[in-house]
Amino acid sequence: MNTLMIDGRERPLRDLWVPEMSLSSARAGRQAATYVLAVDRDTVLSSLAAAYDQYVREMKEDDELTGDPDALGRADYPPLGVVLDEPELLSDVVGGYGLSAELFAAVLPGASGPMLGTWAIDTVDAVHFDGERVVLQGTCYAF
Q1: Which residue among 20, 127, 128, 137 is least packed, with the fewest CB closer than 10 Å?
Q2: Residue 114: pLDDT over 80
Q3: Which of 142, 136, 105 is nearest to 4 (CA)?
Q4: How far apart are CA 34 and CA 17, in angstroms?
Q5: Residue 42 has pLDDT above 80, yes or no
Q6: Distance CA 63, CA 57 (A)
Q7: What is the mean pLDDT of the chain?
Q8: Residue 139: per-residue pLDDT
Q9: Which residues contact residue 5 at a Cβ distance below 8 angstroms, ignoring those fewer than 6 apart?
Q10: What does the alpha-carbon distance between residue 71 and residue 69 come to, in Å, rounded to a whole number?
Q11: Helix axes 100-107, 41-66, angle to 10 degrees
């Protein structure tokens, strides 16, 4: 089961949303909080499969041009299921490469678009796999 905690309190998934633009100016005067979103392994694999495959194709092309693979390339672009068990790669794929947007879209009702939730995601600061779920943690702001 996917779960959401905001400042240590369990909240419904619908309370968290992804703004279309950065919160840089909109967050002034807003209450900041820490969110922890835990997503089941199967949901992660099914929601990120296509985006991950596309990312791998693009990075392989880039590697051919530059000859300078990133950490994922140096690991020979393992399947997504293997990436879950590699903390550095998981952090890069979900946090660094921006695949968190696909994950948020699959898990959060009305994840993007008009403001639907109470809390807007600002950052993804940490990502790890606990053996059953991928856990994303970051900062969100009350709206």
Answers
A1: 20
A2: no
A3: 136
A4: 14
A5: yes
A6: 10
A7: 90
A8: 95
A9: 11, 35, 36
A10: 7
A11: 160
pLDDT greater than 60 at residue 112: no
Please give the Cα distance from 27 to 109 (Å, whole number): 22
How far, CA to CA in Å, does 88 sit from each of 59, 77, 126? 17, 13, 10
The answer to whether residues 44 and 104 touch, using CB atoms and an 8 Å cutoff, is: no
Name the strand (E) or helix (H) holding 3. Answer: strand 3-6
Q: Where are the domains of the chain?
A: 3-142
The structure's pTM equals 0.89
With a cut of 60, say whether residue 113 has pLDDT above it: no
| Terminal Cα-to-Cα distance of the chain (whole angstroms) | 26
CB 116 within 8 A of CB 17: yes
- Other beta carbons within 10 angstroms of residue 77's beta carbon come to 21
**Strand-strand pairing, 3-6 and 9-11:** antiparallel
What backbone phi and psi angles, to 5 degrees, belong to 88? -65, -45
Tell me which H or E stretch contains 117: none
Q: Which of 62, 63, 61, 103 is nearest to 80 (CA)?
A: 103
